TrEMBL record:
Originating species: Xenopus tropicalis
Residues annotated as transmembrane: 48-68
EC number: 3.1.1.-
InterPro entries in UniProt: AB_hydrolase_fold, CarbesteraseB, Carboxylesterase_B_AS, Type-B_Carboxylest/Lipase
Top-level taxonomic group: Eukaryota
Keywords: Hydrolase, Membrane, Transmembrane, Transmembrane helix
Pfam family, one: COesterase
Name the UniProt record assigns to this protein: Carboxylic ester hydrolase
Residue span(s) of domain Carboxylesterase type B: 79-584
Record-level Gene Ontology MF annotations: hydrolase activity
Length: 596
């Protein structure tokens, strides 16, 4: 095999030095490759892995703008809600209302405070266009410059009826982006008029505070706090958005007693936070976690100590100073590298012993009373006992393979890489892992069997097996039904929407199920086959049925009896991947699961 090639991605020191535009001369951010001595040498890590994949979605979904807007003539439509009248559009069969405030702008003295009720209005509020995304940086696009605004707490609604007697089920989307990026209005990565028209439900999305603005824990931020806590402000925003839905959704034809929350990646992590938060109890009635994480265990005290690196960068010594800083300065001061390493290195690689991912979401004792797994085990008061769907894809990490030459690995390369990482844990872990993940296992693309074996192994460690464990605990604790699914569908072609990530996704990658539900796979693949479209219909069918009925159809058994495997059809399997997951569980690998 040819020599390995390293790629300096967003994890390189040079790039993070200039995450936010400054007066210094901008450095060339072109991805470079460097020859190395080893056939499979370690490249600088693909930091912000999940975030970067979401950024790619933005770039390849430009064409989706026309798809979302449709060609139907539109008229204006007014609805009276609790804070005043709002004016949206009625296009074809769908009404859409965008940019309705659900909280006051969290600026000035309200920065790093619980969300405050919005100021109401006397005139009709224009709800025609999306409002700003929350403050963020996107390292692989926009030259890493600051984007958005702190004035960002807005909600969007799509519905086929504004009759309060319609009582349609409600689906509230929580966007992903590693709690750092994106918004409730990303083209193609969120509800659409097409979804509203073909799904009997009211669809809602919203923004919530992100990165340091939404999740910075510092002891001095407790000063004047009504909760005596810091951090998790973004989760508080999510609770506020759900309260807005409960109060107002009937005016948009929705049933406030039939609300489903669902989120992907860190949006799925947010679903877990809402499930265990006493603040959110009673605000939703079903939940769907799509590739999120239930593994956020850092205490507020520990996070406050870790985040002193942020305080050092700001030059501030008190909360008043912090609240006067510019948006850019705060984004620039985030500890992207060096523990707690908010850049999230190694998410798509095998772990090495002792190298953990730093916390963004934390256990603050107020929004999140305890780690989700402890909530279930100890049956702590205040969690939501509602029907729950827990989903992953089989090759989650395929969206951002850590090596440019992964598809060219030899059997020797594969074994060497696994050994370098897993030997750090001692024992027979390396030997056992290679036995359970043979490259000889059947795959539809024989020249990619090694790539598939590696990606499946990492995905099991980071997401599939930890998710099985928490799903089993949830099923044992909740009286409501719990369902588990794994997407095994392989799309018709490589999903390489742009040149920002040079490695196309070829298997059941992170976010495949979400694009299927939203009906935007064609934008990822360029074109779709009959099988791709069948998979999309299947995802939409089951999610919409769950939102309407609070349970899955009879062909989808409850967990832990069986796991639903989703492709062009649904099949169900007992003890799915039990041998593989037992290996990782018995070797203490749960702590290396995805977090945030």
């Amino acid at each position: 095999m040819a020599k390995g090639r390293q790629v300096s991605g967003p994890g390189s020191s040079a790039e993070y030095k200039h995450l936010v535009d400054t007066d210094e001369e901008e450095e060339d951010e072109t991805i470079w490759r460097k020859e190395t001595e080893r056939p499979c040498s370690f490249p600088p890590h693909k930091t912000l892995a999940i975030i970067c994949f979401m950024v790619v979605v933005l770039c390849f979904l430009v064409a989706g703008l026309a798809y979302l807007s449709g060609n139907s003539a539109c008229t204006l439509a007014d609805v009276e809600i609790s804070c005043g009248k709002v004016r949206g559009k009625h296009c074809g069969k769908v009404y859409n209302f965008k940019g309705i405030p659900y909280a006051s702008p969290p600026t000035g003295s309200l920065r790093w405070r619980p969300p405050k009720e919005p100021t109401c209005w006397n005139n009709t509020l224009d709800a025609i266009e999306f409002k700003s995304m929350c403050a963020q940086v996107r390292p692989l696009s926009k030259d890493g410059k600051a984007m958005g605004s702190e004035d960002c707490l807005y909600v969007n609604v799509w519905t086929t009826s504004i009759d309060h007697d319609s009582k349609l089920p409600v689906m509230v989307w929580i966007h992903g982006g590693y709690l750092h990026m994106l918004s409730g209005s990303e083209p193609g990565y969120g509800p659409t008029s097409d979804l509203a028209e073909h799904g009997p439900a009211v669809h809602v999305s919203f923004n919530y505070r992100l990165n340091a603005f939404g999740f910075m824990a510092l002891h001095l931020l407790r000063e004047g706090s009504p909760t005596n806590t810091s951090g998790n402000y973004g989760f508080m925003d999510q609770v506020a958005a759900l309260r807005w839905v409960k109060k107002n959704i009937m005016k948009f034809g929705g049933d406030p007693d039939k609300v489903t929350i669902y989120g992907q990646s860190s949006g799925g992590t947010s679903v877990w936070a809402m499930m265990v938060s006493p603040l959110a109890k009673g605000l939703f009635h079903r939940a769907i976690d799509i590739s999120g994480s239930a593994v956020f265990t850092a205490s507020m005290d520990d996070a406050e100590k870790d985040n002193l690196a942020f305080l050092d960068q700001t030059g501030c010594n008190d909360a008043e100073c912090l609240r006067k800083l510019s948006m850019d300065k705060i984004l620039q001061s985030i500890p992207w590298q060096g523990y707690p390493d908010w850049a999230a290195e190694d998410l798509c690689e095998l772990p090495q012993k002792g190298k953990l991912i730093g916390p963004v979401a934390i256990v603050d004792g107020y929004v999140v009373p305890a780690p989700p797994l402890e909530v279930w085990k100890n049956k702590l008061e205040g969690y939501s006992d509602v029907p729950f769907v827990i989903g992953t894809t089989l090759q989650e990490t395929d969206f951002a393979p850590p090596y440019a030459n992964l598809s060219q690995w030899s059997e020797e390369d594969y074994q060497w890489f696994v050994k370098v990482h897993l030997d750090t844990f001692g024992g027979s872990l390396t030997k056992d892992a290679l036995s359970l993940y043979p490259t000889s296992e059947y795959c539809t693309q024989p020249h990619r069997c090694i790539e598939k074996a590696f990606t499946t192994m990492v995905s099991d460690v980071r997401e599939t097996c930890p998710k099985n464990e928490v799903a089993e605990q949830a099923a044992g604790s909740l009286t409501s039904p719990v369902y588990r699914y794994v997407v095994t569908y392989i799309p018709s072609g490589p999903a390489q929407p742009s040149d920002l990530l040079p490695y196309p996704s070829r298997f059941a990658f992170h976010m495949l199920d979400t694009l299927g539900f939203f009906g935007t796979l064609d934008l990822a693949l360029g074109t779709t086959t009959a099988d791709d479209r069948t998979f999309q219909r299947l995802m939409r069918k089951y999610f919409l049925h769950f939102a309407a009925e609070g349970k899955m159809p009879d062909d989808w058994p409850q967990y832990p009896n069986k796991t639903a495997l989703l492709s062009t059809t649904l099949s169900a399997e007992s003890d799915y991947r039990s041998k593989q997951c037992s290996l990782w569980q018995n070797n203490g690998m749960f702590q290396y699961a995805w977090t945030n």
